[in-house]
Amino acid sequence: PGGGAALRLCSTRVKQEGINKPVIDRIIRVDHAGEYGANRIYAGQMAVLGRSSVGPVIQQMWNQEKVHLKKFNELMVAYRVRPTVLLPFWNVAGFVLGAGSALLGKKGAMACTVAVEESISEHYNNQIRTLIEEDPEKYKELLQVIKQFRDEEQEHHDIGLEHDAEATPAYSVLKTAIQLGCKAAIFLSERI
């Protein structure tokens, strides 16, 4: 209409033949949900600590998470994967976790970062193993993305440790609780 060029909506899609669609759907769906949740966690932390001395550190990590989410948004379209129906819940839960941990102060926010990023790094490592077992050449692009993001999540983990995460009161209890939540979120987001 209007004489303009037609949109090519299919140009970003990946050839579906020969891929293990259920595995790829599960991986992309859960990773999208995880990056969405991470963005909401950092948004909550910035709402509380954005003007503090640790604000720029949190903002830097959040900026990387925004890139991760953008890439998984693109991969969802390319592989025709539907998002988890739990996104509205992760929207609220992520922000509450971020703001709640930040209300404990800089150390609390960093303890949350360590717990979440450690869980995500392990999760990405599991996905890397799965894709290598499937066919490393067939899933080369996806493997590169996941490896890069895993490395960046590990950097966030290390930044959290450098900023005294372990000095948070009841650190091990807080970390364990957050990681149990992450495991539940991963389990649910892969399936629903």
From TrEMBL:
GO terms for molecular function: 3-demethoxyubiquinol 3-hydroxylase activity; metal ion binding. Pfam families: COQ7. CDD domains: DMQH (cd01042). Pathway: Cofactor biosynthesis; ubiquinone biosynthesis. GO terms for cellular component: mitochondrial inner membrane; nucleus. SUPFAM superfamilies: Ferritin-like. One of its GO terms (biological process) is regulation of reactive oxygen species metabolic process. The keyword Metal-binding applies. The keyword Membrane applies. Keywords: Iron, Membrane, Metal-binding, Monooxygenase, Oxidoreductase, Ubiquinone biosynthesis. This is COQ7 protein. It comes from Sinosuthora webbiana.
